[in-house]
Amino acid sequence: MLSPQAFSYISSGAGAEETARKNKDAFQKYSIVPKLLNDVSEVDTSISLFERNYPTPFILAPVGVLKLADDQGDLAVTRAASKYNIPFIQSTVSSFSIEEVGQSSGAPKWFQLYWTSLEDISFSFVKRAEKAGYEAIVVTIDTVTLGFREKDLSYGYSPLADGYGQGNFESDDVFLSTVEEVNNSAIVDGIIKNINYPALNWSHISKLKEKTSLPILLKGVLHPEDAQRAVNLGVDGLIVSNHGGRQLDGVISSIDALSEIAKVVNGKIPVLFDSGIRRGSDALKALALGADAVLIGRPYVYSLAINGEKGVSQFLANFLQDFSSSMMLSGVKNMKQLQQLKIICD
């Protein structure tokens, strides 16, 4: 359904793709120990995050340039998510604007922020997200520079350069004020110039806390000391993630990092999980190992490419059924019991 370049961009990881493979394979080390003869005739998958209730522990991870997979991109995804009231995290480099995505459906929406080299652009995005009714800000902290993605380099391919990820920038007055001439070429050049910021540090997170009343989550946390510092700083939530293996190759798999981070946080703030989720049993393991919610990424993008909104909707229906069945077969009927489920590492 996709060109070789487009499929490679979505599916591949950085470097030799060691981490991308490890994210999926590492789940096999963890085994569920079911505790049976419990009444699981009524399964409750609901959770509460940041004083809001959601019917499932799932969130659609931020993925940029979704128009690469389908012309309706983010709009199709959020419409599918609305059928299950699953939050959708919109990427900074989305194909449609914050306002367009915000108005596209009733699904809960969060905004993912890549810190820009001109921070006023970042603050403008956050202000727009607040105004559009978004529920949280997710700051991705593992992209201070682009990972060395060998497959994209072999194709000489960049969807950003092709204009697939400019929805938020071309609609932002602060960004446009920095462009000498408002045309497609200048906008793309401005995005590429601004999108990575190697100087990003903890002081920027403190400043962001002063700029917004929305919950702030840090996405890309793998080290327990970073988790502890985030808690001390007053960050509202963490997302254990290695960017799906797309940034630094050779890092720890997300599932291997999860337990220690959850132990350090000790329930003070929510710990979410990202990278490697492919099926319901994966999600079950992540939640039992300490995650409060789970992000799903590539699978919904593949589904979008196959059949647009209907494809994403069908994927979500399948995934939710898989997860519900996995809970029942493990002998748990709600999230509290699931978080007490025994998991052993082989």
Describe this structure as you would to a colleague:
- The chain is α/β, with parallel strands linked by helices.
- The chain is built from 14 helices and 12 strands.
- α4 (98-102) links the parallel β5 (88-90) and β6 (109-113).
- The longest helix is centred in the last third of the chain and has 33 residues, at 298-330.
- It is globular, with a radius of gyration of 19 Å.
- The mean pLDDT is 96.
Shape: globular
Detail the poorly predicted runs.
none
What is the count of β-strands?
12
Count of DSSP helices? Answer: 14
**CA(first)-CA(last) distance:** 38 Å
The average pLDDT is 96
Q: Per DSSP, what share of the residues sits in E-state strands of 2 or more residues?
A: 5-15%
Most strands sheet: 8 strands, parallel
Rg, Å, rounded = 19 Å
Tell me the strand order in the biggest sheet. 4-11-10-9-8-7-6-5
Helix-strand pattern, N to C?
Answer: HHEEEEHEHEHEHHHHEHEHEHEHHE
Judged by helices, strands and strand pairing, the structural class is alpha/beta
Determine the fraction of residues in helical runs and give it as a percent range: 40-55%
Give a concise summary:
The protein is α/β, with parallel strands linked by helices and 346 residues long.
How are the SSEs placed, and which strands pair?
Layout: H1 4-11, H2 18-25, E1 30-33, E2 47-49, E3 52-54, E4 58-60, H3 73-82, E5 88-90, H4 98-102, E6 109-113, H5 119-131, E7 137-140, H6 150-155, H7 173-176, H8 184-194, H9 202-211, E8 216-221, H10 224-233, E9 237-240, H11 254-265, E10 271-273, H12 280-288, E11 293-296, H13 298-330, H14 335-338, E12 342-345
Parallel strand pairs: 4-11, 5-6, 6-7, 7-8, 8-9, 9-10, 10-11
Antiparallel strand pairs: 1-12, 2-3
Helix pairs in contact: 3-13, 10-11, 12-13
